[in-house]
Amino acid sequence: QELKQTCNKNNEVILCGVEARKKKKKKIGNNKVMCKKEGKDQYKRTLAECFVNKVSLSSYLVRNGYAFAYRRYSTKFIRDEDFARTNNLGMWSMTFEYPWDYRKNN
After folding, report:
1. Which of 23, 48, 79, 95 could be joined to 35 by an S-S link, Cβ 3.0–4.6 Å?
2. What does the alpha-carbon distance between residue 76 and residue 59 come to, in Å, rounded to a whole number?
3. Sequential pLDDT tens for the chain (106 residues)
4. Any idea what the Cα angle at residue 75 is, between residues 72 and 77, rounded to 5°?
5. How far apart are the C-alpha atoms of 25 and 54, rounded to whole Å?
6. What are phi and psi of 40, to 5 degrees?
């Protein structure tokens, strides 16, 4: 999810990137975040999955429709994404551009 990304719902522009950040901040609250390094991407950036109270932030955001399973690189969050899509949660209730397309076009 890109912070500046917008979505459309009922002809209204929604700041879905900002909404995703709010969801993440609310989930974290005052809790400690623990991250597990998972390697590096093609640009040599560190990849990690972060947890709050043993709950994956990535899984939480994907399951609530504010992040996506990057199927090109992993099958890890596909069930969470399918759940969000089936239940029209978060961005799945809106018209949106996938973050990887948004980055390419903006």
Report:
1. 48
2. 9
3. 577 888 999 999 999 999 999 999 999 999 999 999 988 878 888 889 999 999 999 999 999 999 999 887 788 999 999 999 999 999 999 998 887 787 788 8
4. 110
5. 16
6. -130, 150
